Amino acid sequence: AIATASLMRLDTPISDSLNTALRKSHNPMKKCFARFVENGKRLMKSQDLMKDLEITIEDKRERSQVLEGFLGYILSNTQEAAVVPPNVALAVRPSPGFWEFVKVNATSLRVGDLTASEYLKFKEAIFDESWANDEHAVEIDFGAIEFSAPRLSLPSSIGNGVNFISKFISSRFSEDKQNVRALVDYLLALHHRGQSLMINKKLNTASKLQSALFAAQVYLSSLPKDTPYEEFKHKMKGWGFEKGWGSTSERVSETMLILSEILQAPDPLKLELLFSKLPTTLNVVVFSPHGYFGQEGVLGMPDTGGQIVYILDQVRALEEELLYRIEQQGLQAKPQILVVTRLIPDARGTKCNVELEPIENTKHSNILRVPFYTQNGVLRQWVSRFDVYPYLERFVKDATGKILEVMGCKPDLIIGNYTDGNLVAALMAKKLGITQGAIAHALEKSKYEDSDAKWKELDPKYHFSCQFTADMISMNAADFIITSTYQEISGSESRPGQYESHEAFTMPGLYRVVSGISVFDPKFNIAAPGADQSVYFPFTDKSKRLTNFHPEIEELLYSRENNDEHIGYLADKKKPIIFSMARLDTVKNITGLTEWFGKNRRLRSLVNLVVVAGFFDPSKSKDREEIAEIKKMHSLIEKYKLRGQIRWIAAQTDRCRNGELYRCIADTKGAFVQPALYEGFGLTVIEAMNCGLPTFATNQGGPAEIIADGVSGFHIDPNNGGESSKKIVAFFEKCKSDGGYWNRISEAGLQRIYESYTWNIYAKKALNMGSVYGFWRQINKDQKQAKMRYIELLYSLLFRKLVKNIPIPTEEPLPAPAAT
Ligand code: UDP
Ligand code: LCN
């Protein structure tokens, strides 16, 4: 039972109802299950099951009878079926976060329930029978340690962890006043550069604090509201209060009232409010080791995309909010945010070889670069995100030293980004005893089909054994996790979320995860990013348009010449443009879009295609996927004779010019198309929408949540190019017959953005998380410590060993500096 503790299950197991349903449709189902066993596929997905069902139950009426009943419900909710004749095991997901496992004997149609562990073992037999039968195969089970941890129960509450934790803490306060002591201790520990904040030792019990608050509030009510703190600080100190309550008598009074009310009768909303006012966070470290992390000339390269844009915008928003809060709290402190990445000596014209670089449009934030080391010294070249693991342990050690030196103190909060950044953040947070937040951006596991079960096949190329282990470690070590969408946590009705796919999975021969992370864990919080609205603003905002870029953009789109920056040309300048921009990764599917365009004559007659992606010479790339995609782009242009209708532009690194480019596409009454096979969030989607450009985006992942289909844009199915290109055609045809249609979609897109996707909302939420979870980890110390011991074992015994499989690149000499 412990093995499935974190997997939410329905009250009544499905096996009974399934038994009855199978008995009722015995004959057609017998044929159907016989086919599942005979078709040769050992791991079937939902669409495979449906296809077989269509083949075996030819009669449409009979088929729909079956599909309308319980069997249809089960089969359509089956994410995966593992076939080991004569049995078929089904992993059924009736709704987000809820899983059931059953085994059906294809001959007798007898049904049996399976636990997650049993299901995974059954599935493993397809790949590695002796491993599946090994009683002592490694099982990872975080649910077994966290059996007493609080869990959400409603799928609708998923992603709103702060709210849940506040409720949980206040109910603990109500149950036992002793627990309030923890809050007093927490306040006592707040300090800045050796100086106590909020309260000092005089107020070391809840009752002393309560009386002092009462006395102070009576006194404050006699002062004019805007009296500066400086004028009454001595009086406050006399009672045991320190700075941090507020800059004026009114603010101090407000904060004191909130705390008094909590001490009198705990209330989750008041608790959340109090935590948003406490000076808990002044110094923040943000880790993002891989890639070329820079402010200029790095975007669009492999591994160097949205994560960088996100972090730089995030830092600006966090700094702004921190400055605002510090001012309100009446402190003179300077907030410091350090983005810590790797220093790359072979910087290829970027500033990635500079150790400390101030972040533009901030007052106190910097990028700190720390090199990766090998046995031969500093690693000079870029390495792919799939190959970074061997350097991380040393990186944490070096980075910790540097951070303490540059900040002059310990940070209050560490935020990791992507697998490598999250692992590094977890290691450093543990070392220094600091609150840790994690941000995935993309969990690679969901991007590649069966990447867990088929890990052995993929490992030489992607090292998923390291990556998924690191992900398991850091998502469990993190005090809180920030996600961009609900989908990222628990997916949609039809598709499991990125985190959800880490609940139960197996890598045969390595380990079996029977409870990895639960989507009902209250550490999950949704805080969607925005797009920098000074760069991405509507094309209708004429006075702000960057017209100085227009001649360059005209050349970029329409000149006839082929060069290093663009190839192909647009013969008919009057047509609207469908536009896409992404790194040239397979998953971005830019080649897919090119092929849909190539195949759809009607689409080609209506619009031109412009894509910004990668570059044109495969021999100049070091990235395996990029090389393959470059070659494919060239062959598609030839195959479909696209010259005259396509413009392929190389990766663009100037954000401001890109903003204007989106707007120029809007001027042509065109559209943005994001065709990814899977997209974690999709910053280009919100950039395009911010510019007022109607957007078609993949229904696989985050964009499905950003866009309301047919209202604020459109969803397209990347796995069904024919249908997707028809949908684009339908839009442009409708625009021809209905003059206002294009504008209506454009405006609805903008409205959607303003309601939900801005950086200011994000910064407030993220800082509140740091504060609430900082306290939660204190009162949950014992549980956390037990979990960390388990995590340390995984790190030492598993991860360190796996890292050794990744080859260290041999040093390539740097090219001689160009003559000037
Ligand atoms: N981008 C860019 N130039 C390019 C390709 C992409 O500036 O040639 C930017 C794009 O504007 C967006 C980011 O890189 O800000 C890509 O983020 P997204 O979330 O769409 O995808 P990711 O690359 O993170 O997977
Ligand atoms: C990485 C991705 O793949 C995108 O989907 C996100 O938009 C980006 O990071 C920022 O979080």
SSE layout:
Layout: H1 14-24, H2 26-38, E1 43-45, H3 46-56, H4 60-68, H5 70-76, E2 78-84, E3 87-95, E4 98-105, E5 111-114, H6 116-127, H7 129-133, E6 139-141, H8 142-145, H9 161-175, H10 180-189, E7 191-192, E8 195-196, H11 206-221, H12 229-239, H13 249-264, H14 268-277, E9 283-287, H15 306-329, E10 336-343, E11 356-358, E12 365-371, E13 373-374, E14 377-378, H16 392-407, E15 413-417, H17 418-432, E16 435-439, H18 444-447, H19 455-462, H20 464-477, E17 480-483, H21 486-490, E18 505-507, E19 511-515, E20 524-526, H22 550-558, E21 566-570, E22 577-581, H23 590-599, H24 601-606, E23 608-612, H25 624-639, E24 645-649, H26 655-667, E25 671-674, H27 683-690, E26 695-698, H28 703-706, E27 714-716, H29 721-737, H30 741-756, H31 759-779, H32 781-803
Parallel strand pairs: 6-19, 9-10, 9-15, 10-12, 15-16, 16-17, 17-20, 22-23, 22-25, 23-24, 25-26, 26-27
Antiparallel strand pairs: 1-2, 2-3, 3-4, 4-5, 7-8, 11-12, 13-14, 18-19, 21-24
Bound molecules: uridine-5'-diphosphate (UDP) and 1,5-anhydro-D-arabino-hex-1-enitol.
EC number: 2.4.1.13
Family: Belongs to the glycosyltransferase 1 family. Plant sucrose synthase subfamily.
Domain Sucrose synthase N-terminal: 13-124
Describe the protein's architecture and organization.
With 820 residues, the protein is an alpha/beta fold. It is built from 32 helices and 27 strands. The strands form 6 sheets. It has an 8-stranded mixed beta sheet, with helices on both faces. The protein has a 7-stranded mixed beta sheet with strand order 21-24-23-22-25-26-27, with helices on both faces. It has a 5-stranded antiparallel beta sheet with strand order 1-2-3-4-5, with helices on both faces. Strand 4 and strand 5 (111-114) form a beta hairpin. The model is unreliable at 1-6 and 813-820 (pLDDT under 50). The chain binds uridine-5'-diphosphate (UDP) and 1,5-anhydro-D-arabino-hex-1-enitol (LCN). Residues 306-307, 310, 441-442, 484, 679-683, 702 line the site of 1,5-anhydro-D-arabino-hex-1-enitol.
